[in-house]
Amino acid sequence: MAFRSAFLAASLLLGGVQSLSIEGMLAAPRRSTANVNPSGELALFTSSVYNWTTHKSSTTWQVLDVASGNVTKAPFGSAVSEFVWVGATNTSILYINSTNDEVPGGVTLYTADLGQKNFTATLVASLHAPFSGLKAAKTESGINFVVNALAYWNNGTAYNEELVTTPFSTGQIYDNNYVRHWDTYVSQQRYAVFSGVLTASYGGYTLAGEPKNLLFGIEDFVTKPETPVQPFGDFGDYDLSPDGKKVAFLTKAPELPKANYTASYIYTVPHDGSSAPVAVNGPGSKAPQTAQGASESPRWSPDSTRLAYAQQDNIIYESDRFKLYVATIEGNSTTVKSVAEDWDSSPGGITWSADGSNLWVTSEIHASNRLFVIPADAPASYKPANITGPQTSLSDFTVLLSGHALVSASASWTSRIFYIVSPTTTSETKILFDAQTVDPELTTVSQSRSSSIWYGPNENGDLIQAFVYYPLNFTTEKKWPVIFEIHGGPQSSQGDTWSVRWNMQLWAEQGFVVVVPQFTGTPGYGQNFTDKITNNWGGTPYRDIELLFEHLEKNVSYIDTDRAVAGGASFGGFMTNWIQGHALGRKFKALVTHDGKVNQYGAYATDEIYFIQHDQNGNLWENRENYGLWDPLSHAKNFSTPHFIAHNDLDYRVVQSEGLSLFNILQTKGVPSRFLHFKDENHWTSNRENSLLWHRYIFNWLKYWVAIDEELIQEGVIKQ
Ligand SMILES: *[C@@H]1O[C@H](CO)[C@@H](O)[C@H](O)[C@H]1NC(C)=O
Ligand SMILES: *[C@@H]1O[C@H](CO)[C@@H](O)[C@H](O)[C@H]1NC(C)=O
Ligand SMILES: *[C@@H]1O[C@H](CO)[C@@H](O)[C@H](O)[C@H]1NC(C)=O
Ligand SMILES: *[C@@H]1O[C@H](CO)[C@@H](O)[C@H](O)[C@H]1NC(C)=O
Ligand SMILES: *[C@@H]1O[C@H](CO)[C@@H](O)[C@H](O)[C@H]1NC(C)=O
Ligand SMILES: *[C@@H]1O[C@H](CO)[C@@H](O)[C@H](O)[C@H]1NC(C)=O
Ligand SMILES: *[C@@H]1O[C@H](CO)[C@@H](O)[C@H](O)[C@H]1NC(C)=O
Ligand SMILES: *[C@@H]1O[C@H](CO)[C@@H](O)[C@H](O)[C@H]1NC(C)=O
Ligand SMILES: *[C@@H]1O[C@H](CO)[C@@H](O)[C@H](O)[C@H]1NC(C)=O
Ligand SMILES: *[C@@H]1O[C@H](CO)[C@@H](O)[C@H](O)[C@H]1NC(C)=O
Ligand SMILES: *[C@@H]1O[C@H](CO)[C@@H](O)[C@H](O)[C@H]1NC(C)=O
Ligand SMILES: *[C@@H]1O[C@H](CO)[C@@H](O)[C@H](O)[C@H]1NC(C)=O
Hints:
The chain is mainly beta. The chain contains 10 helices and 39 strands. Strands 32-33-35-34-36-37-38-39 form an 8-stranded mixed β-sheet, with helices on both faces. Strands 1, 2, 3, 4 and 5 form a 5-stranded antiparallel β-sheet that branches. The protein is globular and about 75 Å long. The structure holds 2-acetamido-2-deoxy-beta-D-glucopyranose (12 copies). Residues 152, 154-155, 157 line the site of one 2-acetamido-2-deoxy-beta-D-glucopyranose.
């Protein structure tokens, strides 16, 4: 038993303060990461709040003074959807105004200088489609920029939905298996990177011609290229070289079906589109041919001659380790070298140091995203040291001229924190801004209300980390009911981070101790630990959770394991359903499944086929026993614990019939159960009004079954 941290030290006295409410958590400012200017003196970020009286959200732009940490309002509002620092001065910006007076559904580009006392913006271009994802570089003659938008595949022009006439029929016909993805049916259009030139003329800039589709030259022999890769790709999927002359972008492999392979390649193309894109990696390229999987983070070096990126080896495994590469591109000749290849970590978020000698990267260690610096020519054996600690998890960072980094991070105890770290003096961390000290809604969230323990070893000899969150007025003198929160993925972590969907401090404030085990399969504990969940979903991970239960039962006096409940979303929902059919299910008083699978034989209704085929070690017809091995439905005979099921209609990842099947079985068996769905939500419940209802019903369910509240809410429940 390895007890690593202050499980007992968190005795709190938080008398008289307003606790974190569901409404408060949902309405409190949601701040973007900081976009720092070239001199490192200013940063801009957005803040979005919700008003429960008007039922509206509003977004403002804020300016962070880096020296003092002072935050003031920017001289423009939410019409500005994004901006880049570019132009004559260190405070010059180019921004996208999300409206266009001339073209419905179009946007406009403006320039401005935030250093001027009176804010004046100048309209420089009218774009005829909803372009976004702006990147820009100053050139001798003006500004070169790139943006992205949906494009027509037949002629490559940008697609503007508002200008399209609705067809008379709604039918859509398919000949291949990427029918829908996440929450959207795949259509004829694909996202593409477009390049544009703003020519400097006396007193301003003018757009030289229409933006040009840079993907249009790629030969597609199975699937159409697309950048950013949907649904989660963004402008991080492409990059403009600092000299403005070259663009790098990634797209899924055009020679492979998209639904059953993860492979994606990085292409480079001249910014003016004068020749077709050329692949840097992938089959037949100069890059190591061991790398066949997904690529990420293409980033040009300061001198525009090298391109850093990360790629996985495995062609169907989305949770394989990312390895770093640097491609040197001189004229038509490209060489590719791997960097720190043996480092057992999965780096991303690549940024070059100003002199081009180092790569700053983020990587997850023990469920928090940390910062590392690696020489761009590091040998295979190189092992970098993390610069940031486990207290926060990084969202983004900027390397400052001083060689320090300005970090945007969060933790369970703060929704946003900006601080400065140095790679050499690790102890010096200067906090510029901490939402917890500013937002009244966050008064009771606190670093002392979270901790982590390590338990085990488990059957493989691995120690398991679990994050622990404490209720208000926690004391070890009392016995507390406990929630087991089981994370999704399964190859993703749930550490000490802020979330508006699974906010663990909010859950704890309902009167529970909350434990969140990082069971076998969780990334950030070495690739081998992640890989051990393959074809083992209800095996080791289930027993890791069982081991945590035993640990709390035997060794933690203030946890009342007779009043234990469990729940989770996605894989966490699958595991909850698995628990319902097994011995551990009888130890919980109630369960909650959000968008979880119950029928493994129904796996092929999902959108990403590679995921199920990888995790079950093959397809359904040749490996039927693997799909049956961890099928919760096969254990429905044992289902008997009260169970709340939430499942949303637009969930194309785990289809809604999974939740409905489970609910109908529980009802048929007479097991107390409730079904909640939202017709307009996907795998996540994001809309704040929907989320409020979701939280209310779920918290009420859990409290009722451990006798914190007496009554189950009847308001709004639909009777037969
Ligand atoms: C915490 O303790 C204070 C002071 O005793 C009390 O006013 C408050 O209601 C308690 N809060 C909770 C959630 O128990
Ligand atoms: C931007 O700021 C840096 C650092 O203060 C300075 O060296 C540089 O000259 C400035 N650039 C411009 C264009 O003013
Ligand atoms: C929410 O809107 C109402 C009605 O406009 C207003 O009175 C109130 O001040 C707003 N609340 C906040 C926190 O801005
Ligand atoms: C920061 O803001 C405070 C309060 O508005 C002000 O007193 C102080 O002078 C500001 N500091 C700087 C460096 O701008
Ligand atoms: C955005 O564009 C609209 C016209 O489409 C204009 O009225 C408004 O002033 C612009 N706002 C900013 C901040 O550029
Ligand atoms: C800024 O604008 C205000 C109001 O339009 C004007 O009175 C003032 O003279 C301007 N200041 C400068 C420095 O241009
Ligand atoms: C491109 O193709 C689409 C679909 O056929 C068409 O609606 C659009 O007008 C075309 N655009 C141009 C510029 O030809
Ligand atoms: C992927 O699908 C294609 C046909 O769409 C098929 O030829 C190929 O064998 C499949 N590969 C895997 C790994 O499922
Ligand atoms: C580079 O490749 C292009 C297109 O294949 C060709 O036209 C050009 O001559 C080549 N340049 C050199 C320096 O080899
Ligand atoms: C790096 O990570 C380890 C493991 O979590 C941690 O013990 C150490 O404190 C971290 N380094 C810094 C500088 O925080
Ligand atoms: C991972 O497992 C492989 C095969 O079992 C082993 O050779 C390797 O040393 C392990 N790696 C680490 C970092 O433990
Ligand atoms: C309880 O703690 C003891 C002593 O640290 C340890 O040997 C034992 O394995 C623990 N039991 C469980 C179930 O974790």
